[in-house]
Amino acid sequence: MESQLSFDDIYEQLFSPVYRFVKVRIPGRDIEDVVAEIMAKIWRALPTFRGPNLKPWALRIAYHHVADYYRRSQRIPALVPLEDNLRGSDPCEETAALLHIGQVLAGLPPKHTAVIQLRLVEGLSADDVAGILGITHEAVDSMLYRAKKGFRKIYHDLETAGGEQK
């Protein structure tokens, strides 16, 4: 049973997906604090966990915590540009590709970005994503379709414009 795991076990299992989820949503200076708050929240809520898979449950907590972060600070949520999180990286084609993808994702509505990240990057099922976002399975499928369509359009527009953002 998941609730019999130690804090270290939970941290080991969930830190990476929670960190990735938060990293593109929160400004760099706050990432570590927000992730620590989420991990503590997950640990405190663990006795209430009643499900087969801990990761989607934890990411739902992260999703709501990020929303609370923006409500508390009265800021408008937006994707943090990937270049803010890549400082110190060696310049290479891979970094350029990530920056280009970051530009495309930043042009999508936040829920479209979330559905792409959860379904395609994290590999969660549509049912798990539905639980995290508080929508139906069918709405996840529809949103993913619209998100992919929007991604392709923005990507094409950036490619047509030369892909450079000055």
TrEMBL record:
Keyword Transcription regulation (UniProt): yes
GO MF terms held by the record: DNA binding; sigma factor activity
Ranges for domain RNA polymerase sigma-70 region: 11-75
Domain RNA polymerase sigma factor 70 region 4 type span(s) in chain numbering: 101-149
Domain of life of the organism encoding this protein: Bacteria
GO biological process: DNA-templated transcription initiation
Annotated keywords: DNA-binding, Sigma factor, Transcription, Transcription regulation
Pfam assignment, any one: Sigma70_r2
Keyword Disulfide bond assigned: no
Record PANTHER family: RNA POLYMERASE ECF-TYPE SIGMA FACTO, RNA POLYMERASE SIGMA FACTOR HI_1459-RELATED
Family the entry assigns: Belongs to the sigma-70 factor family. ECF subfamily.
Protein name, as recorded: RNA polymerase sigma factor, sigma-70
Originating organism: Acididesulfobacillus acetoxydans
